[in-house]
Amino acid sequence: ITKFPSSKAFASWLRLSPNVKVSGGKVLSSKTPQNRNILSAALRNAANTIAQRKDGYLKQFFSRIAYRKGRAAAITATGRKLAVIIYNMIMKKEEYNPISEIRYEQKIKQHALTNIKRTIKRLNLSASDLENAIG
After folding, report:
1. Chain Cα centroid distance, residue 118
2. Do the beta carbons of residue 75 and residue 48 sit within 8 Å?
């Protein structure tokens, strides 16, 4: 694992990251390639097990991705997240400290608010436009 310069390279080697093909700035394909790596299969199984849990921020992450993109994509995305966690634990020699569910929800809400602010700025909307749209 020390041969990989980053967690991105490690996840890519495990084939848990999408192989994005771009031409002229347009994304042509972004499928995750098939593989026969034992560690990758173990991480996918672990991700599938996380889906069965009742709580935890990884469960929330899995559910959010599964709602948007489907269960198969959520298994791959959660497996990639697990690979990054393992890489960082080994390379930084630190134990894993997961964030709390409440903090994860706050992070998601903050991200959503940032997106809303960006959209309001892009559309050049004012407060009166928003009030008219709501009421």
Report:
1. 21
2. yes
pTM over 0.70: yes
Tokens matching residue 41: 């299969």
For the chain, the first-to-last Cα distance in angstroms comes to 57
What is residue 56's DSSP assignment?
A: S
Query: What value does the mean pLDDT take over residues 113-123?
Result: 91
Query: Do residues 75 and 47 lie in contact, with contact meaning Cβ atoms separated by under 8 Å?
Result: yes
Q: Which amino acid does the sequence have at 115?
A: N
Interval 22-47 mean pLDDT:
87
The pLDDT of residue 54: 84
- Measured CA to CA, the distance from residue 47 to residue 56 in angstroms comes to 13
Q: How far apart are CA 106 and CA 109, in angstroms?
A: 5
Strands (E), 1-135: 19-23, 26-31
For residues 62 and 50, the answer to whether their CB atoms sit within 8 Å is yes
Q: In one letter, which amino acid is 19?
A: N
Q: Is-contact 60 53, C-beta < 8 A?
A: no
Decide: helix, strand or coil at residue 119.
Answer: helix
Looking at residue 29, its pLDDT comes to: 82
